[in-house]
Amino acid sequence: MSADAHTKAPPTLRQRRRAVATREIVDAAERHITEHGPAALSLRAVARGLGMTVQALYHYFPNRDALVTVLIAKAYDDLADAVQSAADTAPDDPAAPRFVTAAEGYRRWAIAHPELFQLLYGTPLRDYAAPLDGPTTRAMRRMSAVFQRVLFDGFTEAQLAAADTRTLSPSLRAYLEGLRTDGTPALPAPATVLMLSGWGHLHGLVVLEVFGHTSFMAGHQAEVFRLAMRDLLADIHRRIPAERAGAGRPGGQAG
Q1: Domain coordinates of the chain in residue numbers?
Q2: Could you give the CA distance from residue 249 to residue 154 in angstroms, rounded to a whole number?
């Protein structure tokens, strides 16, 4: 353990009180979004729900955008936690690959928290712009890294670079290979294309369900989603060549 860890002073009473008040404000803002939707969020409404004045709330969040940024980052982290938990608790069963169970964790969170899901992926809030490479971006990258691991686990970089995709322009290839997720090296461009395509399929089905467009399925959405995710995973893995030199099928089979 470093000397800094031993000598770091505990938070002061004032800092602890501020942390508690900040959590209460964020919790109140989440409740307001759940009850009224993201578009109705305002500092005045949150302050009113807490019995505070807007001026008092400004001591913690100088404007609505600062609060929205914290809410979006927290929602992304909560969603990533749900996806990671689903992947970590997946049974050791080839019939239930970790990617599929992770995708189901994503779907369950979205259904359980439709208003927060709308905050992340619905109509953008008027006049709000997330800070460049700020906490919302970092939180989104974290979730992307979880899906990257469960989708490509066991495949080598050479295999991913040789994945069967359409010919990419040099400029697109260079751009894609410059992308990164926190704590995870940049993917080869063909793997990024496969992941983006798979993400669009997964997310699109969840959006349709959360926003009520698949209600005609009369409760069969979960089964349809699982079948779709298994087919999606199989198609992506078919596009990745097997290892050479007599190596067996990579860990991608385990999902």
Answers
A1: 1-62, 64-254
A2: 9
pTM of the model: 0.86
Give the separation between CA 237 and CA 93, rounded to whole angstroms. Answer: 17
Residue from 162, 207, 160, 209 nearest 185 by CA: 160
- Please name the residue ranges forming H helices in the chain: 3-7, 13-36, 43-50, 54-57, 64-88, 98-112, 114-121, 135-152, 157-161, 170-177, 189-210, 221-238
| Non-local CB neighbours of 107 within 8 Å, separated by 6+ positions | 205, 206, 209, 222, 225
Q: Which fold has domain 64-254?
A: Tetracycline Repressor; domain 2 (1.10.357)
Query: 122 near 40, Cβ under 8 Å?
Result: no
**Six token digits for residue 72:** 């979006």
One-letter amino acid at 195 equals: M
Domain 1-62 class, CATH top level: mainly alpha
Q: Which of 71, 99, 74 is nearest to 86 (CA)?
A: 99
- Per the CB < 8 A criterion, the answer to whether 184 and 149 are in contact is yes
What is the tens place of the pLDDT at every residue in 145-158?
Answer: 999 999 999 999 99
Cα separation of the two ends of the chain? 36
CA neighbor of 242 nearest in space, from 231, 229, 253 = 253
Q: Are 145 and 112 in contact (CB under 8 A)?
A: no
* pLDDT, tens digit, 9 for 90 and up, residues 18-40: 999 999 999 999 999 999 999 99
Give the type of residue at 44. R
Q: Please, are residues 55 and 72 in contact by the beta-carbon 8 Å criterion?
A: no
